Model the fold of this input.
Amino acid sequence: MDAFLKVRQPMLYGIRDHACKKQLRTIFSSLTLSPVKALLWYVEEREHHVSPFKQSAMIIHNLGYPRIGSQRELKKACESYWTGSISISALQEVAAGIRLQNWELQKQAGIDWIPCNDFSYYDQVLDTSLMTGAIPARYQALTAKQLSETDLLFAMARGYQWDGDDITAMEMTKWFDTNYHYIVPEFTASQDFHLFSRKVVDQFLEAKNAGYAAKPVLLGPVSFLLLGKEKEAGFNRLSLIDKLLPVYLEVLDLLTKAGATVVQLDEPCLSLNLSAEALQVLSDSYAQIHAAFPQLHIVLASYFECYGQHLPAVLALPVQTLHLDLVRCPAQLEDVLQTKIANSKLQLSLGVVDGRNIWKNDYTKSLAFIHRAIKVLGEDRIAIAPSCSLLHVPCDLDYETAISPEIKNWMAFAKQKLQELKELRDIVKGNTALLAANEDAIRNRAASGLIHRKAVKDRVAAFTLSDASRKSAFTVRQAIQQEQFDLPLFPTTTIGSFPQTDDIRQLRARLKKGELTVAQYDAAIEKATIEVIRWQEEIGLDVLVHGEFERNDMVEYFGEQLDGFLFTKNGWVQSYGSRCVKPPVIFGDVSRPADMTVRWSSFAQANTDKLMKGMLTGPVTILQWSFVRDDQPRSTTANQIAWAIRDEVVALENAGIKVIQIDEPAIREGLPLRRENWAAYLEWAVQAFRIAASGVKDETQIHTHMCYSEFNDIIKHIAAMDADVITIETSRSQMELLDAFADFKYPNEIGPGVYDIHSPRQPSAEEMISLLEKAVEALPARNLWVNPDCGLKTRKWPETKVALTNMVKAAVVMREKAAL
Done:
C-alpha cells in the first residue's frame, strides 16, 4: 500500500483544497484492495464525481444555492472587511468555506449537476458586468489604481469615497418580482466588452479540483443586455450583442478546456414580454454558441413565468436541456409536450420544487408532472430541479428549533428542498413509503385548526367599495392639511428608520436572553428616541420620525404582532449585498389582536411640538416580503393584512398622530411579469392599500414610500392609491423616475429621494440642490417634499448626520430661490 500511495500521490496535486486532499488520503489508506484495483476504483470515482454527465436515467440538478452561508457568514465577513476589521484574504477564506460547504451538501443530497459560479460577494449580475468588462467610465480611475477585483466590485455596488475620489454607486433595482436587488449594468453606444474577470472559470476549477461535479451557471448574454440600461440616448442596448458575444464564447472556451461539459445559461428575461428583435438576437446568439461548442451541453433556464408566446422560438434554440418553472406556470409542461418535442432530442428540466417559498413539496402534484413527461419522452430525457435558484429561500430548516413540530412538518428550506428532489426520484424508482409520509404531511396541513379563523374570513367577505375610499378628494384634503400643518415649501422629512447601532441591537438581544427587564429595555429605547427627536429638531427637519429603535425589521416587527404569522430564528435570505432579511411565514388567517405601534408613536409625539409620523408597513409589502401560504389566493391574504393595518391606522389617528406613513416599497415588485396579467394584480393590490389607508379623517395625512421601482407603466395605479404624499427613490437615477410623474401630471404630493442611502457616500448640499432643481422642472414646487431615498437603518451615524444636515441646507436654499 505504501508503494500505491507513492504512485497515487501525483493525482492529488491537482486538488487544491487541503481538506479534500486529506479526505482522499484517508480513504485510500483505509482501502482493503490491491493497489491496481484501488487505482481503478479511484479513477472510476473521480470520473463519477467530476464528470458524471452521461445521462442514462432521470437526473436531479439544482439551479443555484444560497450564497450567504447558513449563519450569514458572508454578510458578517463582508461588513467586517468594509470596516477594516479583517483582511481580504480572511474574506476570501470565508467565501471559499461557504462554497465548499454548499458543494458538499449538494453532493450528499445526490445532486447530479451541482451549480458553481452561483456564489457572489454581492450580486450575480454585477459579476457578469465585471466578467464582460462592462465597467462604467467613472471607475476607470480605480482600475488605474490597481484596485483588486473584489474592491472594484464593492466600489461599483456601494460607491467609492476615498483618497480624493468620490464615485457614485451603480443603480440598483429589483430582480424581477422578487425582493432580491441586482446592480443594473450600464451601457453606452461605444461600449467595449472584454474578458475582465475569470471568476466563473476559477470557481469551476475550484469545484472540480475539490472533487465536485460542477455545472457552471452564467447569466445569458441576452438577459444581461436586457437587464441593463442605456446611459445615453440614440441606441438600443441589444445592438451591442455582436461586441458582447465574443466574451461569452471566450468564457465558454475556457470552461470547456477546463473540463466543463454542462453549462447552465440563465435567460430569465424570457419570462417578460419580449420584442421580435430580442427573440431574433436570442436565436442568433445561441446559434453561434452551438456552432462554436457543438458538444457542450447547454441547460437553458428561465423561471418565474411561462415561456408563453416565446415558446416556439425557445424550442427552436440549439440547446440540450430546457428548464420549465412548473411552480409559477404548471400549464406549460403540456404546452411543450403537445409540440414535436417527442421527435427531437431535447431534454426537459422540470422545476417542480418551489424555489421561492418554504412549504413542503406536494409529491403527488410533482409526480403527476414527472410521470406525464416520462410517458412522452422517457426517463432519460427528464431532469428534475427546483423552479429557480434556491437563492430566495433560507438555508436549512434544521436550525429552527422553536417552531411548533406540526407547522415545521409543513416546511422545507434550501437543504430540505434538495432532499425533496432526491425523494421524488426515489419514489419514481418505487419507494412508496416516502410518498405515504409526504401525503400525511400535506393532509395534516390542510386540516389543521391553526390555519382558519371564521371572523377574519367574514370581515374580508363583507368588503364594500366605501371601505376603500377616503371621505374627500385629494384637493380638498390637501387644503385642509396645508392650513392645519403650516409647513414651508420643500418640507423635509426622513423615510422612517434611523441607524440601528450595535448598542440598539444588543438591547434587543439582552431582552430576549432575559438580561434586561421589559421596563429596563423600554427606558433605554425611550432615551434613544428622545435623543433622535432632539437631533432632528436641532438640524431643522420639519416632519419627524421616532427612529424605530424598537423594531427589528419593517415586516418582521408587524408580523410578530399579527395572528397567522410565525418567525424563524435563522431563516435569512439575501436582499442585496450584505443585507439579509428574515421573512415572516404567513401560515394562517391574519388579524390584529392589539395595538402594534401606538405606544411608541404616542411617546414620540408627546416629546415634540413638531409633527411626528406614525410608521407602518403596507399590506402588499408585508405580503411580498413574507413567505405566503399557498392554499388560498394571494389577494385574499393581502386583504386580511389590509384590514389589520387599517385598525392600526385608525388607532394611531385616535392617539393624536396626524401624519401616518404606510410603506409600500414592494407594490411594483408584485406585478406579474407578463403585462397581460397586470390588471388583476393591480386591482387587488391598490384596493388593499386603500382599505388600509381609508379609515381616517381628511385632516390626517397619509404618506406612502416606494423604492427602486420603475413607475412609468403603472403610474395611473400609483395615483389610484390616493396617498396624500408619496416618497420614492430617485437619486441613483438622477431624478429620471420623476418623468413618469410629470408626464402623468401626478396630482398629489411627492418626495423624490435626494440622496442614496444604500451607499456610505456623504452627498453635499450642492449635489442635492442640483437634484431638487431637476425635480422643480418636472413638478410644482408646492407639491415637493425633501427626503432621502429610503430608511436609514443600515447606515452609520456619522455619515447620516452629515447627509441629513446637508439635505436640510439644500431645502433651505430651494426655499430662498423660490422666494426670489
Notes: The radius of gyration is 28 Å. Residues 615 and 661 are 5 Å apart (CA to CA). The domain at 475-819 is CATH 3.20.20.210 (TIM Barrel). Residues 1-54 have pLDDT under 50 and may be disordered.
